[in-house]
Amino acid sequence: MRLILISSLVLAGCSHSEGPAPATPVPMAAAAAPASAQAPLAAFETVRAVLQDPRCQNCHPAIDQPLQTDQGFVHAMNVQRGPTGHGLPGAECSACHGKANAPDSYGPHQPPGVATDWHLPPPEMKMVFVGRSSRELCEQLKDPQRNGHKDMAGLLQHVSSDPLVLWGWSPGFGRRPVSVPHAEFVAAFKRWSDAGAPCPQ
Amino acid sequence: MKLLVNGREREVDAPSDMPLLWVLRDVLGYTGTKFGCGMAQCGACTVHLDGKAVRACSTPVAAVGSRAVTTIEGLSSDGSHPVQRAWAEVDVVQCGYCQPGQIMTAAALLTTNPKPTDADIDAALSGNICRCGAYQRIRAAVHRAAELKGGA
Amino acid sequence: MRAISRRELLAASGTGLIIAFVIPGRAEALLAGPARKPKPLPSPNAFLRIGTDDTVTVLLSHSEMGQGIWTTLPLLVAEELGCDWSKIRVEHAPAHPAYAHTGFGMQMTGGSTSTWSEYDRYRTVGALARELLVRAAAEEWKTDAAKLRVENGYVIGGSRRASFGQLAEHARALPAPTKVNLKPPEKWTSIGKPVRRLDSPEKITGRAVFGIDVQFPGLRTALVSRSPVFGGTLRSFDATEARKVPGVEQVVQVPSGVAVIATNAWSARLGRAALKTDWDLGSFAGMDTEKMRAEALALSRTDGAVAVSKGNVEASLGKGAKRLEADYEVPYLAHAPMEPLNCTVKREGDRCDVWIGTQFQTMDQQVVAQVLGLKPEQVNIHTTFLGGGFGRRATPVSDFAREAAEVTKAAGVPVKVMWTRDDDIRGGYYRPAYHHRVEAALDGKGRPVAWKHTVVGQSILAGTPFEAMMVKNGIDETSIEGINDSAYLAGVAARRVTLHSPRRPIPVLWWRSVGNSHTAFVVESMLDELAHAAGKDPLAFRLEMLKRSPRHAKVLKTAAENAGWGRAPAPGRARGLALHESFGSIVAQVAEVSIEPERDIRVHRVVCAVDCGQPINPLGIEAQIQGGIAFGLAAALHSQLTFREGRVEQSNFHDYQVLRIDEMPTVEVHIIKSGAKMGGIGEPGTPPIAPAVGNAVFALTGKRLRTLPFRLA
User: Fold this and answer.
1) What is the pLDDT of residues C479-495, one digit of tens each?
2) Phi first, then psi: what are they for C440, rounded to 5°?
3) pLDDT under 70: residue ranges of chain A
4) Chain B residue with the nearest C-alpha to that of C262
5) Domain span at A179
6) Where residue B71 sits, what CATH number does that domain have?
7) Under 8 Å CB-to-CB from C160, ≥6 apart: which residues?
8) Residue C131 and residue C148: Cα distance in Å, rounded?
9) Domain locations along chain C
10) In terms of C-beta distances under 8 Å and separation of at least 24 residues, what long-range contacts does A161-170 make, across chains too?
11) What is the domain count for chain A?
């Protein structure tokens, strides 16, 4: 069978990274630090939980194939990242994913859609969320060479209003939205970035 | 609403959320586009929108807009498209139900990638299920179509 | 409109060119065979029509569902007739006793029988027609028929030639010969050579009409809401919201549920979604897969109805030098043909027309007639192309034809009842789940001396019209075929095969290769276990067991040699083999597999050897073997149905997974021309693939997989 669980991906990730398994909440290394130092890290933990929610991380995979469902199965149909993140010829994301979610009347398991086109990060900047430790995720997020050439303001705008990000909170009929409310996510992101965007050690 | 299907502009009287598949089949009578799953799992309903492969079963007709719809009936009037010729030459079909979708996906693939490898073919066509198991001949036929196209 | 059958199109084409040339009445006895009394034929009344435009139309007594009979039967006719292959036209025959299966007595397609059962009949049709055409020419030219020859659609005598079309009307008036001579094989020009399919042109252009494509003015589409649990009954329904859906015209109750009838399929779907139903779910609502598995496991420890008993198996098991025990399990499976089930019924007074992609015309005709209070001959069955069958379109109770007749009757308008994929996956008629318990013993030389096999699984035939005829002494042979008749086991001195057939409300049915779909898996995997326990090479071990079956041994050796058995495969890969006889054909397969992190089991290559007796069309055989492997591989790697609280948990291809092109191995087919009696080819490619893959996985990993679908972890 072609499906593998996220957990095995995580294990695979562990074999060549030293970070803890990130599918479970990362123990706060800063637990003993003063409260003022803890707050932005707690805020980042909220951000991390969102980035590593299946709705978000399924399209930020460590492999060159998207994932699916809350279980993080490798996307059926042998779907590939492709040269631009939009799939391969004949099997572009747009073959199934339109400009909007299907109407509710279509029932569950419809391919979701978004106005700015369904896609993965491009191969030259994969922005992997799956299997990353909090620290790795944090450092990647802040690094313009690895985050899509964004500064903090750009990132904040991205998480606040990018249609593909917002999709995580309106994922279509029968699909669970991101667990953390969007406003809470944006607020946490802002708290974290306003505090100088510290990363867990 | 208006829909451009196989080069003809058609006036369509259908609810805007009706899937393109059922507009094509039940309203316009293009029954070459098939129903297989209703959720973009099997590819039997594949058509082209502006030359790109799209699953008609999960595309509301209103989302088509001004894009040109091409169905299997519009790929060629007489089976002369290189993909169709290759399909006949390689003797691909069995029950034939999935083949309009397979052919439309293969044609879209060759438009962007005129010389696909086996891996390219597998990637492009993994969204199209064939229960008869014609896959090996589908691979061969896509290669043959690429030759026919190149030679044409 | 699309609904007009090809036959009507011909009649209505207005060219006036097509005049039926039919096999005259006296020839019918010859064609129908000695056992059956010929009945009057409808018009056009036979298997062949030759038009004055030189077209040769072959009427198929069997349904084209992908297996290629659309090409094979014309090929048999053409071999004897000597017609121009490009002038061949093909039609499905109407439902009529004249088209009854030569072996089974009813009009049907199944059991991998179409080619061998028609081998004589369709060649005879061709020979009869040729004889008549030659005689017609001889009469016109006042010459001796023996001096004339036939070539590519012409009768030729010296410098004179006449096309079949020119001779058709004259030939029609001639008395039929009472005897014809068929060509000896050395004179064949077509049989045994690769021939491309005749249905390609319409299938690659979207013109081919499947049942679901039938449309005509006034036709409505219906979806039926059925009990979510098998055996449930409808308490009540509320159609208020359903009727509000634009396009919905009627909501009617039928025995199988509630039908929502609309002007188009989408409205019917929305209407059904809006329908409120209240079901008494019945006793099966408490059942789930784990419970059924536990029940089967318990039953497998007890003796069932005895199918085979030879020697004293308990004593031999006790005396053996080595004893092995194993439990194997396979799940319920849906056929999931790509075209969801559908049937269109139109009634006008005493006439009824049915458009259906069916494998069982005779049953459908009788059932629809019964529902509508008509005589079977008043029901015209128009067989369309079948978008896959695999057994699902061959229900002894004609479930989807019956339902369509009920809906049409209740609605009073012509209706196409359509199933969605959810209906297909959840609506029943599955390959039953089975539990196998095998105990076997080897003697001191590592030879099997005892085989005790207990099979537990629902009977396909129980409760059907076939039960009285086909279930003997509690044994439904479809549950154990492939064990009781295994060439391997024939040489095991002590053996016992018993069967438990628990009754459950789950509707079950033959699924491509029927019992062989699980028995081959168990027998061939267990043999592999024994071979390894004996410390022998799996090929050598099997060949030793097949000493008295030279055909089988040759097939196995052919596959093994071509696969490179005995030579090391590429690093990271291993090979496994399996051989199984079913439907009169013997197939061996060697699968080469690897384990990949993101795919688990990957099957790269399958080398296959086939002995199906006389091959008719090698291209067709290759396609059927490739397809059989793809079908079996889907079940080996992915597909399964599970029940929770009586409900099927899967619903569509996202959770009832089948094989996709990226998992299709390269299949190599070697056809052995043994000269043996012709066997079938539609199904025998399926049984060996699961054990071949499982045995390869064992060779690679040392892990024995005894449950389908295979799970490594």
Assistant:
1) 999 999 999 999 999 99
2) -145, 155
3) 1-37
4) B26
5) 6-16+38-194
6) 3.10.20.30
7) C141
8) 11
9) 6-203, 211-282+341-418, 289-332+430-701
10) A162/A116, A163/A114, A163/A115, A163/A116, A164/A114, A164/A116, A164/A118, A164/A119, A165/A56, A167/A55, A167/A101, A167/A112, A167/A114, A168/A50, A168/A53, A168/A55, A168/A56, A170/A101
11) 1
A90 inside domain: yes
What does the alpha-carbon distance between residue C188 and residue C131 come to, in Å, rounded to a whole number?
17
Whether C662 and A63 lie within 8 Å, measured CB to CB:
no
C positions 404-433 inside 8 Å of B (CB): 420-421
> Are residue B70 and residue B90 in the same domain, yes or no?
no
pLDDT value for A18: 35
Task: Report how far residue C356's alpha carbon sits from residue C385's, in angstroms, rounded to the nearest whole number.
Answer: 8
Residue A21 lies in a domain: no
CATH of C6-203, one of 3.30.365.10, 3.40.50.2300, 3.90.1150.10, 3.10.20.30: 3.30.365.10
Same domain membership, residue B121 and residue B106: yes
Helix (H) or strand (E) holding C23: none
Q: How many CB atoms lie within 10 A of CB A29?
A: 13
A129-187: pLDDT as tens digits? 999 999 999 999 999 999 999 999 999 999 999 999 999 999 999 999 999 999 999 99
Question: Which residues of chain B does C420 touch, with a Cβ-Cβ cutoff of 8 Å?
Answer: 38
Q: Quote the pLDDT of residue C13.
A: 34
pLDDT at C174: 87
What domain count does chain B have? 2
Structural domain boundaries enclosing B98: 82-151
User: Measured between beta carbons, which residues in chain C are less than 8 angstroms from residue B84?
Assistant: 204-205
pLDDT at residue C702, as a whole number? 96
Instruction: Answer yes or no: same fold for C6-203 and C289-332+430-701.
Output: yes
Determine the 3-state secondary structure of C604 from DSSP.
strand
C266: left (phi over 0), alpha (psi -120 to 50) or beta: alpha
Q: How far apart are CA C438 and CA C325, in angstroms?
A: 6
pLDDT computed for residue A21 by the predictor: 40
Q: Which residues of C touch B121 (CB under 8 A)?
A: 661
Which of 3.40.50.1460, 3.30.365.10, 3.10.290.10, 3.80.30.20 would CATH assign to domain C211-282+341-418? Answer: 3.30.365.10
- The top-level CATH class assigned to C289-332+430-701 is alpha beta
What digits encode the pLDDT tens for the residues B47-106? 999 999 999 999 999 999 999 999 999 999 899 999 999 999 999 999 999 999 999 999
ipTM of the complex: 0.98
Taking an 8 Å cut-off on Cβ atoms, the answer to whether A78 and C660 are in contact is yes
Same-domain check for residues B90 and B126: yes
Average pLDDT, stretch B29-58?
98
**Concatenated DSSP letters of B58-124:** GSBGGGTTTPPEE-HHHH-SSS-SHHHHHHHHHT--SS-TTHHHHHHHHHHHHHH-SS--HHHHHHH
For residue C306, CA distances in Å to C329, C473, C477 come to 20, 8, 11
**Nearest-angstrom CA–CA distance, C563 and C605:** 9
B133 and B92 assigned to the same domain: yes
In this complex, which of A78, A105, A107 lies closest to C662 when CB atoms are compared?
A78
Q: What is the pLDDT of residue A35?
A: 52
For B123, other C-beta atoms within 10 Å of its C-beta total 26
CA C27/CA C46 separation, integer angstroms: 10
| A88 lies in some domain | yes
From C251's Cα to the closest Cα of chain B, the distance in A is: 20
Q: Are residues B50 and B91 in the same domain?
A: no
Kindly determine whether residue A91 and residue B58, on different chains, have CB atoms separated by under 8 Å. Answer: no
Residue that terminates a domain, selected from B60, B75, B90: B75
Rounded Cα gap, residues A175 and A168, in angstroms? 10
Residues of chain C predicted below pLDDT 70: 1-45, 598-599
Q: Contact C704/C525 with Cβ under 8 angstroms?
A: yes
